[in-house]
Each structure stands twice: as structure tokens, then as C-alpha cells.
Amino acid sequence: MSNNKKPNMRAFRSLVLAKTSNAEDNGHATRASARPLTGTLHAPSMSEPRKERQVYYLKLPVSGGLLKCELVEFDPDELVVSPYNQRSQELLDDSNPKVLELRAKMLSEGQNVPALVRLNRDDQPELIYGSRRRFVLSSINKKERKTDPIKLTAWFHAKVPDVDARRLSHSENDDREAISPWERGQYFLRLKQKNPELTGEAIAALAGEDPKLISKYLQLATLPTAVVKLVASPVKLTLGSGLDIHKALRKFTHTQREEMMASIGQGVYFESGAELLRVIKGFVAKKAAVTTKKKIEFKDCLGKKRAVIGVHRSNKGQYKVDLYGFDDEQMGEIKKAIKKIVGS
């Protein structure tokens, strides 16, 4: 593809379908047309020239049969990520340890494993899997390779069915790095938002998940992305620790949450959700301690100080109360209130 001109994907689709028409029937290769390949094929490094067109017979895991795919180069920025891809694109940034690791590998070795692309209903090239590779190449092209951008190599077939695209996306991610509980919850949430009538049982059936866990995943999905990014890898944020963090943060005001994030600082990553939870609990305890040390003043409508409650410096749970300008009747009301509180 040209770097200067956006490709005409309708023409591209017609071209690829025409090339494969002799071996396929409605986009499906016959079983006699080639020997099925079930293992992952490693394409040559992107820096090596390809002398002939490379093909791969993709086994469809749900609908059955084979699709004859060709190895095609794409501009990573022209690809849209499939809605069936559970990998959260929000978690991908250049400071993430996993992204940095993949970036270093791709700069030194190139892209060894092709992604998988089809055309969506709008004739856009849709990335079924390989979204981290797409992100890393896009980032490299914006920095190290501005004048000589790298293409993303992918096995391409225009007509990969939806049911197979979903299964292929999920299984490929599981084979590489498991989708984290938060990302899984985000995927369930998107399904629910797309179809509000979808029940937890229906989502469980689609995803092959325990129906009892769907509500927990949906709750975890509401955890802010900025908090999830504090963990070095999202898979280290377990369902249990994630829900505990969610519960702890519910007590925070927006300002308190910003203060906590500022106290942690940028570029700090925790090895696990449990470690992050300890820091959050420590922040809560610290704020509580600071709050209890402060004196509480009460003023009347004229702005005159009438009462001050302070904390004893050494005796925990002991308070000092100073009252100003109260008459006997008001003191009687205060005594009644105290008696009611202590239950005497």
C-alpha cells in the first residue's frame, strides 16, 4: 500500500477475492484444495523481501472449513480493532512494561508472527487479533521510523464470519497473554451496552463463563482505567483484589481520588492488585489520622465560635470539648444528647 494515499478498500477486497476465486467457494476453501495447517506460521522478518505470495489455510473453529488467507502488509493506523477483541486499547501506552518489552523485541527482530485481518461491514480492514503489535508499530512509526514506516503483516481474508472472528480473537489472546478480569469485564459491559436486554446467563453462554461471576465482572469493569494502569500488567489485577479496590475507592470523593493518584506519582507500577490495595488502604488510614488530629469548630449564624472539639494527643479515643456562651437550658440539651448517645 502507498504511504501517501489511503487505500480503496472496496477495490482491495475485489482484488483479493479475485486472486482466491479458483480455490474457494464463497470465500471458503475446499478441504481438497490444500493441506490444512493448524499450527501458527511464522512469517519472515519485515525487513526480508518476499519472492512469492504466501498463503495460509485458516481453519474456522466454529463454522468449519478452511479459508485461504494471503500475507498482506497494512499501515497500522488504517486498521480498526475488532469489537470481538477483548484486549483493552485504553491500557496500551508507551510506558507500560509489557508494551516496552514488545517494542524492544520488534525493533530488534521485526514482527515474527502475523496478525489476522478481515473486512468489516464498512469495508474497513478490521484487526481480529494483534492489537498490541498494531499499537507498537504505530508508536515506532511516529518516533524511530518517521521517514521509513514499518507495515504490519497479517493474514488476510475478507470474509471471516463473525462467530469465527470472535472465537479466533479470544483463543489467540489466551494463547499469548491471558485477558485480565478487568478487560473481560469491559467486554461484557460492551455486550450489555449494545444489548441492554442481554441477561447475565446469556453473556455467560456467549463467553463460556460461570453465570455467577458475570455480575462481579461487570462491577469490576467500572474501576477507572487510570487505577488499572497502576498495575504493571492487568492480569495481575485479579477479580478478588480488583473488587476490593473498587470497594475501597467507593468511599473516596473525586478530590480524594485525585490526591491519592498524585501521591503515588506518574510512572509508578505495582506488581499486583494486592500491592496496590495495600497502598490505597494506607492512604485511607493516613487521611483518617490527619482528619482526627484537626480541631472541629462550630460557629453560630453571626460567625462567633461557640464550640471546639479536639483530639487528645496521646490517649486514643479521648476528646476535649470547649463550649462558649451556653446558658443552663442549652447545657441541659447537650447533656440529654450525650446521655442518648452513650445509652445511659
Write the SSE topology.
Elements: H1 9-20, E1 24-25, E2 28-29, E3 55-59, E4 66-74, E5 80-81, H2 97-109, E6 115-119, E7 125-129, H3 131-142, E8 152-156, H4 162-176, H5 181-194, H6 200-207, H7 214-220, H8 225-228, H9 239-249, H10 254-264, H11 273-293, E9 296-299, E10 305-311, E11 319-323, H12 328-342
Parallel strand pairs: 5-7, 6-8
Antiparallel strand pairs: 1-2, 3-4, 4-8, 6-7, 9-10, 10-11
Helix pairs in contact: 2-3, 5-7, 7-9, 9-11
If you had to describe this structure to a student in words, what would you say it looks like?
- Helix content is 42%, strand content 15%.
- With 344 residues, it is an alpha+beta fold.
- The longest helix has 21 residues.
- The chain is elongated, with a radius of gyration of 29 Å.
- The N and C termini lie far apart (85 Å).
Q: Sheet bearing the most strands, described?
A: 6 strands, mixed
In which range does the helix fraction lie?
A: 40-55%
How are strands sequenced across the largest beta sheet? 3-4-8-6-7-5
Report the strand count: 11
Distance linking N and C termini: 85 Å
Number of helical segments with 4 or more residues:
12
- Compute the gyration radius: what is it? 29 Å
Poorly predicted spans: 1-51
User: What is the SS-derived class?
Assistant: alpha+beta
- Strand residues, percent: 5-15%
Query: Shape from CA axes?
Result: elongated
- The string of secondary-structure elements, in order, is HEEEEEHEEHEHHHHHHHHEEEH
What's the pLDDT, averaged over the residues?
80
